[in-house]
Amino acid sequence: RMELSCPMGGSAAAPPGPGPPASAGAGLMDGEDYESLPSGAALGTHMVAGAVAGIMEHTVMYPVDSVKTRMQSLQPDPKAQYRSVYEALKKMVLTEGLWRPLRGINVTMLGAGPAHAMYFACYEKMKKSLSDIFQQGGNSHLANGIAGSVATLLHDAVMNPAEVVKQRLQMFNSPYTSVLGCARAVQRTEGFGAFYRSYTTQLTMNVPFQAIHFITYELLQEHLNPRREYNPRSHIVAGAVAGAVAAAATTPLDVCKTLLNTQENTALSSLNIRGHLSGMANAFSTVYQLGGVPGFFKGVQARVIYQMPSTAIAWSVYEFFKYFLTKHTLEKRT
Q1: Secondary structure of residue 2 in the 3-state scheme
Q2: Taking burial as the number of CB atoms within 10 A of a residue's CB, which of 53, 245, 258, 270 is the most buried?
Q3: What is the number of domains present in the chain?
Q4: Where in this protein does the record put region Disordered (predicted)?
Q5: What is the pLDDT of residues 227-264, one digit of tens each?
């Protein structure tokens, strides 16, 4: 999720759009640069770049995401108690097989492409429109935050069902063996609503996550890359720092989301909760009863370790594709 999650949010590099004018260099002609995309190419460019960035973001660090899901378990099986990310990965591979940390990666790829395509297209469009309103010709942090938050609504609507299936497949001793089998079983036993049980929690987490993420990213870009040129190093550093800050700050909500997605049987039955847990307030109460305040920070190490490279990858891949596709379009014109 850059988070891009991409965005990763969920959820690429310096978000394009308004900002100090970049110099026309690196093969871009007529004063045009990759920050001001040629008319007609912008939406498609953002969507293709966003889709590739989203898939890369979610898959490259996927094994660590599997570890995070397990470390957020409120009452883990004794065989699935881990002290560190490295120990968890080693244990999973040795006891459950080489491919176990990758289980569920296919449904993540399936959701991440369209989710991030819509996410970045919406972000770019809104950021430009709102910046013109709030700070004509400038880079408005308020516009960045609002644009990132609204784009998250679209992203999460696509990713939430994929997250439910993915996290159930990631759990220790998961009864599901395939994506399709898991999706069918959840739909049959819990109804379609199960795929969106954590949607409000996901949004409550991702809206501040993306707002912190984008504002931190843009703030760092102003210092590291004030001319807003294509600068991979600045995109990677700013993306990694922004992802780490946002991930740490929103871990309590991520723990609640995991509980709602997985409906962890052992934890719920220990509190005599029958049926299915729903709603953010219930999730918060359950986490607190079972783990106290520290319970809200379960898996924080894995979450930060996952998000730092993920957001760095997402931003750098996104900016590279945006630059490359824009350059190609401009060259075709001449």
Answers
A1: strand
A2: 53
A3: 1
A4: 1-30
A5: 888 889 999 999 999 999 999 999 999 999 999 999 99
